[in-house]
Amino acid sequence: MKMILRTALLSFALLFLVACSSGGSGDKVTTPTPPTTPAPSQPGEEPVAPPVVVKERSLTVYVHGYSKTGHKRVGTYGAQEAIDANEEAKNIVGFSTDYRGADTNFDENIIISTSYYGNQPPDYYTAEDIQEIESAEAGIPRYAAIVAKYAKHKMVESGATKVNFLSVSMGSLVTRYLVEKNLENLSAEQLIGRWYSAEGVIVGNYAASDPVLIRLSNAIDEGSPEAKQMNYAWVNEAFGSGLVTTNPYYRDIMVGFESSTKDDDLEGILTKYLLLKGTFYPNDGYQLVKDTHFGIQIMSNSDLSPYLSANITNPNYPLTPTQSYFHENHTGLKNNIAAWSQASLFFSSKRRVQITLTHVRVDDIHEENSQIAEIVFASQVYSPQLYETANIAEAIDRRALESGILPIHPYQNNGETKILNQNLFDAFVKPDESLLILEIDAFEIDNSIKYNIKEGGTGDIEAIGKGRFDIPLSNGTYEVSGENWAGEIKVEIFNYQ
User: Is 234 helix (H, G, I), strand (E, B) or coil?
Assistant: First the structure.
């Protein structure tokens, strides 16, 4: 019986020009080629076959997050586990768990799961596999090797041509290691299609990097190897420092990031500690927002050729990673159905939407005596399609004032127009979505610890106008306005092959 968690969010299979070669030790992945009819040719000429479009068959592997006692787990690692065995994924929607090996229906958005914790190998491991795992560095390198072998094994078992990864929290550091170190040759052979990271430990973890906070929070076992590997120093040594990666393997992978912004997890101890040290950073109670994503610098073909087994142009090439925000704390995101639906659409949809607030005129900046007004624009986006088909009324992206993530735009005079180019939405949507609902709230900030603004006086934050708009999903510019402001947004649609 098919175990489809929410039929309204089932995927639509992607069509790509697939060029994958087998390779690496152990399991080998082959790309099927359908029969073709040679084109007519002149006498003495070789027949020319028409271009072949192969239907992509993708599996998504769920990569779980950190467990305080995980490194001590006794049991089998790398075996298939029920997706709802992970507490963090118990409310997952938009995927099918009806994995049937060679009989898997790839028209469904199939997701599978394993655990990288444990001390016993699965049945499909060879003696060489066991030796590789046992000789790997404990912690992230070992966990990444286990996930990579599991992904490769399931591709061979099912006949999948691509594997995707949906990772959460520390699982994103595991996945990053898998990708950038080319484990099981998955990256070099272009076998990875998409990677979506939710609340990920992408460039490190603040608590794991501060010996005082790691004890105060009591959220991380200092004796676990991953406690040291979530440290900024270890991440920088493993991947290089900076918030932009130049690793060539990302040229062939669509990457998406989700960042949570509500800082009340663990009773807000992270924010309290940051303020005690003098600087607030937006966070979800466990993870700083700035540590949950990175930029990707695309390299030229000539730069890539030493790294890739084939110099293949990917249709995703021109675009940066997607970026979504939800105003949830780190452990609360799992209960947000809209967040799960956006994760599922990242893997099943071919239609990406970017909405940018390009410029705004503010008629009343709510400041006197020529003082600079610090103005921010909060936003929420809703999907009518998700509401109609799945009764999901929550925002599919929320960039909240309370989060501290909003860019500050200085205005000096009433009636002044500023070029903002502030991104409000960047994600995949359902193929038949014709419009999105956008809410924009404008505020003038006088005093706020989260925005590092202190003007004195009695006022803190003033609302200067709110607007709610039906935004057509077609390329173009559209007017938006609130009580004391008016501006324009730009909508861009990208349809992938």
Answer: helix
